[in-house]
């Protein structure tokens, strides 16, 4: 594979640095805008060359020494080479790029990415890969496991748990164990699957005025520091009769919605998350909300959705076409879309714009410092 000298123009969705050379577009991993680099082309996809850094010829003023010893090999963090300020600016640029290029939004509103209260030791949830006697995260661009003894983004309780898991006798590990889901809460740590001394414990966490129970086998947000303002922004001053919370997990938005609307329905596919969501509502004394265990697209296809407000918070793949169609058919006056992937968000927004929705407000939250990932909340109303 060939070497090239390039200058990085900006950071793209996916976290790559963009460069151009000899008629090619080049995507460079782990780069900083303004870097002059000698890069090695690893593969070609269409007209795009994917490259890695061989040598930093002139470092960008935004470049810092990545503090983590696993940086570059571990596939987890791809923004440690950037100052935190530049990470936030790059994420705003990523969202702007997706809204402009994919959603075809002519006038993209100003995007401010709210910083995480913690730049390190913020991660409440993780998946550790296990291969033979190696425990850590997948290596960059591979399914080989990078052996990680200290992960600087984990909250201290999870770091201690990682150390305890690594110190466990290998005979105690279930034979077929390939990965472990772990999550921390105010009252301990939960692992799935459970083995030896490690249990899939039920945990609790207070966010805003609500208490949530959850465990390692149901989705819970990674970074609790920004969740209260994110929920406030997504729901703003909305009040009314009927609201729907699609992909509701353990009820992060369902509880605050049930305090604002007379009648709330949450829809969630994971039965364990559904059980927690129902428990969380019951403990809060919120009898005006129900949680259905169903695939959102299957549910919406057979439901004549009549709702004043729809909140959707799908996984990274975004909402299925049937879900967007169901929202459009419902003519819900207000919609809040919570997304962890600006590209699929923009794909879905394009359809919502075509159906008459316009952006009322947009905010972004850095739930994932040291990575290119970012959480975006878009409030829409029928124009
Ligand atoms: C990004 S999480 C959001 C959960 C919740 N809103 C929160 O913030 O904690 C997405 C949730 O959607 C669920 N899910 C994924 N695909 C689904 C589908 N097709 N139908 C129903 N639920 C789905 C997952 O189990 C997960 O709980």
Written account of the structure:
The chain has 383 residues and is an alpha/beta fold. It has helices at 84-101, 156-167, 227-235, 254-260, 271-283, 296-301, 321-330, 342-354, and strands spanning 3-7, 10-11, 17-21, 24-28, 36-45, 48-58, 113-114, 125-131, 134-138, 145-147, 179-185, 188-192, 203-207, 210-214, 240-246, 261-268, 289-293, 309-312, 334-339, 357-365, 375-382. Helix 1 (84-101) packs parallel to helix 8. The longest helix has 18 residues, at 84-101. The protein is globular, with a radius of gyration of 22 Å.
Describe this structure in a few short sentences.
The protein is α/β, with parallel strands linked by helices.
SS element count, helices? 8
- Please describe the biggest sheet, giving its number of strands, its sense, and whether it closes into a barrel: 8 strands, mixed
Ligand inventory: S-adenosylmethionine
Report the C-alpha radius of gyration, rounded. Answer: 22 Å
Q: What is the helical fraction, as a range of percent?
A: 10-25%
Order of helices and strands: EEEEEEHEEEEHEEEEHEHEHEHEHEHEE
Low-confidence stretches: none
Beta strand count: 21
| Ends apart, CA distance between termini | 52 Å
Can you tag this structure with a few keywords?
383 residues; alpha/beta; eight-stranded mixed beta sheet; six-stranded mixed beta sheet; 8 helices; globular; binds S-adenosylmethionine
Layout of helices and strands, plus pairs?
Layout: E1 3-7, E2 10-11, E3 17-21, E4 24-28, E5 36-45, E6 48-58, H1 84-101, E7 113-114, E8 125-131, E9 134-138, E10 145-147, H2 156-167, E11 179-185, E12 188-192, E13 203-207, E14 210-214, H3 227-235, E15 240-246, H4 254-260, E16 261-268, H5 271-283, E17 289-293, H6 296-301, E18 309-312, H7 321-330, E19 334-339, H8 342-354, E20 357-365, E21 375-382
Parallel strand pairs: 4-6, 7-20, 15-16, 15-18, 16-17, 18-19
Antiparallel strand pairs: 1-5, 2-3, 3-4, 5-6, 8-9, 8-11, 9-10, 11-12, 13-14, 19-21, 20-21
Helix pairs in contact: 1-8
The structure holds S-adenosylmethionine.
């Amino acid at each position: 594979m060939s070497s090239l000298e390039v200058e990085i123009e900006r950071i793209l969705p996916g976290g790559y640095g963009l460069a151009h050379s000899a008629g090619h577009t080049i995507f460079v991993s782990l780069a900083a805008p303004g870097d002059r680099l000698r890069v090695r082309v690893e593969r070609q996809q269409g007209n795009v060359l994917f490259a890695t850094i061989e040598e930093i010829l002139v470092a960008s003023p935004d470049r810092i020494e990545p503090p983590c010893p696993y940086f570059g090999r571990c596939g987890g963090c791809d923004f440690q080479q950037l100052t935190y300020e530049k990470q936030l600016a790059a994420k705003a640029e990523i969202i702007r790029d997706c809204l402009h290029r994919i959603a075809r939004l002519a006038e993209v509103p100003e995007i401010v990415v709210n910083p995480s209260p913690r730049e390190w030791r913020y991660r409440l949830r993780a998946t550790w890969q296990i291969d033979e006697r190696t425990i850590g995260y997948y290596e960059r661009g591979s399914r080989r496991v990078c052996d990680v003894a200290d992960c600087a983004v984990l909250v201290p309780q999870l770091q201690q748990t990682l150390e305890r898991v690594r110190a466990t006798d290998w005979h105690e590990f279930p034979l077929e164990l390939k990965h472990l889901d772990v999550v921390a809460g105010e009252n301990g740590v939960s692992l799935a699957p459970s083995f030896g001394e490690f249990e899939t414990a039920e945990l609790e966490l207070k966010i805003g005025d609500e208490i949530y129970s959850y465990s390692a086998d149901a989705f819970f947000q990674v970074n609790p520091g920004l969740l209260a303002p994110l929920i406030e922004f997504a729901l703003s001053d909305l009040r009314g009769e009927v609201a729907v919370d699609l992909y509701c997990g353990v009820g992060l938005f369902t509880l605050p919605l049930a305090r604002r609307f007379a009648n709330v329905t949450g829809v969630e596919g994971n039965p364990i998350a559904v059980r927690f969501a129902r428990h969380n509502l019951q403990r809060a004394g919120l009898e005006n909300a129900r949680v259905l265990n169903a695939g959102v697209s299957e549910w919406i296809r057979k439901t004549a959705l009549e709702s004043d407000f729809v909140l959707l918070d799908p996984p990274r793949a975004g909402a299925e076409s049937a879900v967007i169609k169901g929202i459009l058919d419902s003519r819900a006056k207000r919609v809040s879309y919570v997304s962890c992937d600006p590209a699929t968000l923009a794909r879905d927004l394009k359809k919502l714009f075509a159906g008459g929705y316009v952006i009322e407000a947009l905010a972004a939250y850095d739930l994932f410092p040291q990575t290119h990932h970012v959480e975006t909340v878009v409030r829409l109303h029928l124009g």
